[in-house]
Amino acid sequence: MPAPFMRSLYTERGSQILLGVLIAAAILVPVLNLAVPADSALHLSTYTVTLLGKYLCYALLAIAVDLVWGYCGILSLGHTAFFALGGYAMGMYLMRQIGTRGVYGDPLLPDFMVFLNWSELPWYWHGFDRFAFALLMVVLAPGLLAWVLGWFAFRSRVTGVYLSIITQALTFALMLAFFRNEMGFGGNNGLTDFKELLGFDLQSDATRIGLFLTTAFTLGGAYLACRAITASRAGRVIRAIRDAEDRARFIGYRVESYKLWLWTFSAVLAGIAGALYVPQVGIINPGEFAPINAIEIVIWVAVGGRGTLYGAVLGALVVNYAKTWFTGAFPEVWLYALGALFVLVTLFLPQGIVGLLARLRKSA
Amino acid sequence: MKRPAVLETFADRERVFDFVARGSRAPRLDVSHNVILYLEDITVAFDGFRALNQLTLYVDAGELRCIIGPNGAGKTTMMDVITGKTRPDAGSAWFGQSIDLLQLDEPEIAAAGIGRKFQKPTVFTEHTVFENLELAMAGDKRVWRILFARRTPAQTERIESVLETIGLTDQREARAGSLSHGQKQWLEIGMLLMQDPQLLLVDEPVAGMTPQETERTAELLLGLAGRHSVVVVEHDMAFVRSIARKVTVLHEGSVLAEGSLDEVQNNPRVVEVYLGE
Hints:
- The complex is a heterodimer of chains A (364) and B (277).
- In chain A, 72% of the residues lie in helices and 2% in strands.
- Chain A is mainly α.
- In chain A, α4 packs across α11 and α8 (205-231) crosses α9.
- The radius of gyration of chain A is 21 Å and the shape is globular.
- The N and C termini of chain B lie far apart (73 Å).
- With 277 residues, chain B is α/β, with parallel strands linked by helices.
- In chain B, the strands form two sheets. Chain B has a six-stranded mixed sheet, sandwiched between helices. Chain B has a four-stranded antiparallel sheet with strand order 2-1-4-5, with helices on one face.
- Chain B is globular, with a radius of gyration of 21 Å.
- Chain B has helices spanning 5-10, 18-21, 75-83, 106-112, 129-136, 143-147, 153-165, 181-195, 211-224, 237-243, 261-266, 268-276; strands at residues 35-46, 49-60, 64-68, 90-95, 99-100, 114-117, 199-203, 229-233, 246-251, 254-259.
- Chains A and B meet through α9, α10 and α11 of A and α4, α5 and α6 of B.
């Protein structure tokens, strides 16, 4: 590992806090859920564990967006597409695991295919009965899509708002496609009614804890990987491209390669986040492709503070906690609150919460 | 049996196909005829307006050349053509005898040994002065190499020596965005030096500088000539007088006159263009 990367971990408060909290959560959450009796005040319900796991998936997605937006200036409004593709790849594996336990009891075909009177499994559903293949697809499907889109867009030097619009159109087009029953992904109902993952019952507390821990460790690993990239010389090149693209090109950097590489990596992270999300929430449907979700991710990152990675995690947690609370207490108000939050942050907190904290510490 | 015509073309053993030549690194710079830059009959038209009109210009190896001309004469467009930003509609551009600039894109041209300073000082504002120079350092700039790149002591030394040359040693850890206008210009020249180019293109280096800064910049550029070929585009006549040995006057996209500054200034056509209308 390059030395600057290690140095950044020793000196950066945000990194230390984030990793500390993740480790603490990985120890405390299982103990509070499994070891503390259910009638104790300290007991953590399985519902809460799953909710926390979901937040961590969002945090991973936020890191992926921050990596391209905060560090390279690529404002993606299409990361939901990569997230949902990763989710669908995992969902297809989970569907195949149902086997004869479905409503129609068909050993091969998922329920929705039987319902549509399909007689055989579409070719692209083959292989998903194996977990390793599904994992490969979790990485390949979003990665390949991002690579192809990026290859065309960055080569043609599409930047700024035009690129954002293209990514938005991409996720919208995929949403419409996945809504169609003929696509073979369950239409507007999506994939659901999952039973087990690798033989573990998805409803059991232990499996929920296992999924939470996997998500926490993946988030930690992804954070370290992103930190290693941003602390390397390539990370400095990426920020240089963000600040003065032409200058970078004229001193000899192939700007499109750097963008393509970072963009694809970011899409893969989003896909992994989706794959971790689906078994925890128990469903994946085309609604996950909705462009509005992509804009929400951007708001998480902006609220937390972009270009820091840990700010993205903080933003995802804070905004999603607020969302859970608001949609419970005042469901009609949530979208207005979200909009107001974005406007306020853009106007008064250009560096997000992280920037605000840094300013408070300086002045204190 | 007679071979089909398609096969016939592939059987031509002397021919180097485009797809073979493409992607290969540019050949080595060859200046054995002592000319580093050949621009011949370059024409660039934007919507019918001819920014460059059959421009023909040669720059000798090791020369410091000043290019002057009224606004819209095509100076910046000429630099765009040389660095690969703009493709000409006609003409040829060669770097030495062996490198056809029109076949290369910006990073390839930079790697071949042409550095460019923009009119508006362009540095990486969020990076430190030291990091700016490090990023500009010559070497393999592909993603994987750069991701795992470590600075060697020799490279650090090189950066230090450039810091000294451009007079920014005390600012090495300062954010480039916090530098004064003149310091940014020098940093950008320093970044060119780090690239170790054979040919430097410098667009209006003293625009907006104080007289002291201008003088310092003149020294800097004079120090570079000889080891590098330098092409300077400038409006400031006093500055041109202080550095130029040979001056080219551009007007309406082609060369109007060429020679020493005195010859050029006494050329009736130049006088007409500058004072005429």
